[in-house]
Amino acid sequence: MVDLRQELLAVFDAEYRDHLRVIRGLLNTGCDTVPALAEIFRRMHSLKGAARAVEIPAVEDVAHAVENRLSMLMERGGTLDDADIAAIARALDDIDGIMETPPPSQPPMPDPYGMADGEGPAATGAPPPGEGGGDAYVQVPVSRLDALSGAVHDLMGVAERHDRLWERFSDLLRDMRALAHAPQRVHADPVALFSRMTRRLMAIGREHELMTGQADRALLRLGEDVHAISLVPAGTVFGSLAAMARRIAREHGGPQAQVEVRLRGMEVQAERRVMQALRDPVLHLLRNAIVHGHESRAQRLKAGKPEQQTITLTVTLTGVRLQVRVSDDGCGPDLKAIAARAVRQGMIHVDAPLDARQLLARVFEPGFSTRAHVDHLAGRGVGLSIVAEAARALHGTVAMEQAQPSGTVVTLTVPVSQRQRTVLLVENGEQMIGLPGRVIRHLLRVMRDDIRMVDGCPFAVLPRSGMTGVPPGGDGAPPDDEALVPIVPLSAFVGDDAGTGYLPVRSGAVTVAVMEVDGVSCGFAVERMVEVRTLLISDASAVGLDSELVPGIAWPREDRPVFVISPDRLFERWRARGGRGMHVAPAPPPQATPEARRAPLVMVVDDSITTRTLQKTILQAHGFDVMLAVDGEEALMLLLQSSRRVDVVVTDVEMPRMDGFALLAAIHADPRLATIPVVLMTSRDNDEEIRRGLEGGARAYITKQKFDQGELLETIRGLL
């Protein structure tokens, strides 16, 4: 029965959080209506019954007290007033307290809500869900399950059609073998016989092509629907932290201490495991805001602030990155105290010229604290280092800044999915390297003559605005309005030939990606920047790589692996070599060898992997570079983000998300792309469709029924 109880507790954990999230939402957005009152009553009644089922009488008693008060109010035909709302809010905080930090036992509590005569809730220990082998549960909308079921059904349908197609192909092979053993049948009417065989084979080929596109779309939809199942609203994880913050404020400032906690963006959705991994770090930030941002009532009034401190927890989603920001209107970070502590701990030199951003990056170091004494809430220098480590584990970043006009803002930024990350693809010899976009600050092309040599090491000169690197001393130091960023070859740290090496020079310049980790900047020289892409990352430890430096690997459609670098480990190895520019020289210019003319770049856009592979093979065999896209939306993104200009676009018409006609219109509407010739290549061969494509700006229209690789090559060459 132990396993069953743990399972029930896990289910109850998801249920009670959902009830409290909805009730808090009603209290905050408008509960002065009869339907809102009825909804709160219904959820409290359900919560009471669920607490009874899992034997948590403390929660049952609180819910029962609220239910009694709401019942009497509903009998009188009234609505919630301010006192009711405050009492219900306190009750929700107590339920959170019981579930978050349940004591094994405690004497009966007096009724603090004025909701019932007699005794209030008596807390009885509720084992945290998940302990003892229980699993975590989330509530999934039925619509998502329906969508997942539909995606699986579509994929099964494709599989069934594939089986039938294979049967037809097997029948054809059987007939061909029979002919091989009965040559007299061939002599009877060979033209008609081979014509029938050819039609059957072509029909099977067309259906296979159609089926491949359907399979690609079905797999894409299935992946999206499976991912959607794992999403949870931020409120299910962070909703209870407001109550915990209020308890921390009372522990720190006394029973009368109050803090206003505002929650924003609680409807934002992300992977459950990402949200859960951020919960403890966010709690540390709330505690830090209360302890370090504390001001007395007199101090706040003198500064023109409200009597009670306000802390705001904001969750936002930007592209594929999740941002969790904790801001307060307290006293703000003490930069002098931070600098003094950093000097005492040997982190910086007493005369080092550090700006606010660099100083605030130090507070995330282990053991760093500016508090003069240690208590059970703060002072050991552990909390913020835990936050920083959690951000790194999630392949994200954390930053502290001074709020305006006062206070502190700490921002956690992590990928919304732990498998999906945005990286800059660069070439390093024969390898394709992925540099995480979260740490990239500048992309530079530094001319050979503009490289500044300081103490024998190469540096790039950048405007000081926004730069955090500390300029080196010695000859060649920049003026006050400039900053020097060391340049080191990426090949010195990555690849089989890792060593000092040369700076790769192409066309008289060095391509540099400036990255920043923990407030320090360094430029890594690469052979070529390819593009920015969002990729699904797999664990690289099983591949036999240096898993510290290369923790992840991705396999894009081109089937060339991308090795994703850990910026923290890369910077560690750079610091181990002195943390400055390395004694390397730009590669010597080639001796009387003219630069090779680059091959034309053709983008192939088609939702069929078979068609994409066929066209790619043909084009590469005839000297073209090829870029692939599965539909118009991806093609447009690549056209806008690619560091290399596409010379010709060859696109299908029938595609998901954005078809070929829409892509054609988007290209001609953008001045940056309008001059790129577009070739439509599709199975639509009627006059109306051809006229629509040509009038829309297509430079050529090729039908797949009459496909001839010579025609395709001749068309592309004619457009270059």
Automatic annotation (TrEMBL):
Its EC number is 2.7.13.3. Gene3D superfamilies: 3.40.50.2300, Histidine kinase-like ATPase, C-terminal domain, HPT domain. It catalyses: ATP + protein L-histidine = ADP + protein N-phospho-L-histidine. Residues 601-719 form the Response regulatory domain. It holds the Pfam family HATPase_c. Keywords: Kinase, Phosphoprotein, Transferase, Two-component regulatory system. This is Chemotaxis protein CheA.
